[in-house]
Design brief:
- The protein has 155 residues and is an alpha+beta fold.
- It contains three helices and eight strands, in the order βαβββαβαβββ.
- Strands 1, 2, 3, 4, 5, 6, 7 and 8 form an eight-stranded mixed sheet that branches.
- The model has no long low-confidence stretch (mean pLDDT 94).
């Protein structure tokens, strides 16, 4: 990673974001999930207000984000979702750092296993983080997904 890039990592519950900060998260998620992946769907859902969100920034630029969902909302286990890295910052291993931070956060907040619904093309990436595939591929918003479970030590 280039030495001149300094990233700030910040966890916040949904209720603690300013309107401008939340707008930036929704904008980045829409740029990637709706526009880049050509997948029209309603991104904001009832899970966001109940979740914790990690934002990675460089200066005023939102570089990446994910949400940590408490147990009992998406699955009986806690979950991680809406993982996204700004196109301009890909190739720097920030997706891995984002997910590792999410795993650590979920384990410290709620303990137990972590379940995700990951895009199938990222199966190898999630497996490298010690997630195990626990479902056959299925379609979610016209994109192949798989359920995966983390139930071990942080890699």
């Amino acid at each position: 990673m280039p030495q001149d890039l300094i990233f700030q990592w910040r966890w916040r519950h949904f209720d603690l974001f300013t309107a401008r900060e939340w707008h930036e998260i929704l904008k980045l998620r829409a740029e990637i999930f709706v526009v880049e992946q050509n997948c029209p769907y309603v991104d904001p859902d009832y899970k966001d207000p109940q979740s914790w969100h990690l934002a990675c920034t460089q200066g005023d630029v939102l570089v990446g984000t994910l949400r940590a969902v408490p147990p009992g909302i998406s699955y009986p286990e806690s979950s991680i979702g809406r993982v996204v890295i700004n196109r301009d910052f890909r190739g720097l291993q920030l997706g891995r750092e984002l997910m590792l931070a999410g795993i650590k956060f979920n384990q410290s907040m709620w303990g137990g296993d972590i379940r995700i619904s990951g895009q199938a093309y990222l199966q190898g990436f999630y497996e490298s983080l010690h997630f195990k595939t626990v479902s056959e591929p299925y379609m979610e918003d016209d994109i192949p997904h798989i359920e995966m479970l983390f139930s071990g030590d942080i890699p």
